[in-house]
Amino acid sequence: MRAPLGLALASLSIAVLLAGCTSLGGDDDSGLSGGDGASSGDGGGDDSGGADDGGGDDGGDDGAAGDPISGIYHVNSSMDLTSTPLADDLVPSTVATLNELASRPAGTLIDLLESANVPILDQLLGLLGDLLLDPFAQFVDEFVVERVVDGLPLRDQLFLLANDVVVLVTQFELLSQLELAGLDEGGGSISATHKLSGISLPFRGQDILVDTPELIDEITIADGVSCSVSLGTTEGSLQVGAHEFGLPLGGLALNALDQVIALRQTLGDLFNCPALAQEVSSRCLTPLLCIGNREEIEQFCEAGLDQAVAQIESRISAALNLVQIRFEAGDALLRDTDGQADGLIDLLDQGNWDASISVNGIDVPFFAAFDGLRVEPAGP
């Protein structure tokens, strides 16, 4: 039985740096390109000079409310790192522990406890003695081979779990909020504020939001980012230049493991250490020579699974911590899609990031799709 979703949110720190965007001249002079409306209040001749009703600041605010581009957009950027060298190093080391638990469970648990100097191992081995050590390991392996969980052999469940972990650490969506201000007098430039708001994970056919309120509080918000647009009557284009997210992907991935998989609880459910201990301790070589030591075997199993999870988390953290993702350039279509013919852009559509990921100082290019939906108009 798959463990229920847990929520164990670590305090993560993401430094967000947004550089200026590439310049793209807005050469469309149709009704939506609107250099007049963005800079002169309501856009009519009565506003000439901007002196009416308190001066330029009020006029600019009124204009932003009806500007075709201004507003807050929720942006989803799909990240797939499976084809990068990061995955080449990360995936084998991450799944190795789970694969080893499936192929040689007793030996793997012993190795994990020995490496961590966990006292229960020496205590159990001392109780068993040399004569019972090999039979003990054999009986543990037999339990794992014969155990069926939710209609699947335990070993197959472990292989599926390894695949789930790989997906969580290499495929995700960055969720961000992009606030676009009104067009300037030239009609082709805008300023923006951009902040990251979390991640979404595709897991077994579902999109699971990893809620990270502590993360959001610690994000650096970039203000005054300049970008360029070109607009027609119902659509246009947006081009974005280079910016960087210094992402602690290791922390994000561990957060995902806690919330989506609850890795330690899941392993506990799969192995069922009390049942394993009961079965193995009851096995005998002769009527007078039995394994025994049920309580110590259960502690051995539980402590071994603790170390398995610690090893997986350590490898993920080491491989992904402070990986730099750089968006070299981005472009998207701007669309008025709400059917109200109000002249306001509602959708950032078919966006593409030309990006790179820096791993151990080596930049590797990759591409990511994004889209954005207007959720509210820009504030005054």
Tell me the layout of helices and strands.
Layout (H helix, E strand, L loop, with lengths): L14 E4 L16 H5 L16 H10 L5 E10 L4 H19 L1 H11 L3 H28 L1 E2 L2 E2 H17 E10 L8 E15 L2 E5 L2 H6 L3 E10 L3 E6 L2 E5 L1 H13 L1 H9 L1 H9 L2 E3 L2 E2 L3 H27 L2 E13 L11 E13 L2 E15 L4
Antiparallel strand pairs: 1-10, 2-5, 2-15, 3-4, 5-6, 6-7, 6-8, 8-9, 9-13, 10-13, 11-12, 13-14, 14-15
* Beta strand %: 25-35%
Summing up helix and strand content along with how strands pair, one would put the structural category as alpha+beta
Q: How far apart are the termini?
A: 52 Å
The average pLDDT is 76
Query: What letter string, H or E per element, gives the SSE order?
Result: EHHEHHHEEHEEEHEEEHHHEEHEEE
Helix content: 40-55%
Number of helices: 11
Any idea what the radius of gyration is?
A: 28 Å
**Main beta sheet, described?**
8 strands, antiparallel, barrel
Strand order of the largest sheet: 2-5-6-8-9-13-14-15
Overall domain count: 1
Overall geometry comes to: elongated
Can you describe this structure?
The structure is a single chain. The chain has 380 residues and is of the alpha+beta class. It has one domain. It has eleven helices and 15 strands. It has an eight-stranded antiparallel barrel. It has a two-stranded antiparallel sheet with strand order 3-4. A two-stranded antiparallel ribbon has the order 11-12. α4 packs across α11. The longest helix is centred in the middle third of the chain and has 28 residues. The two termini are 52 Å apart.
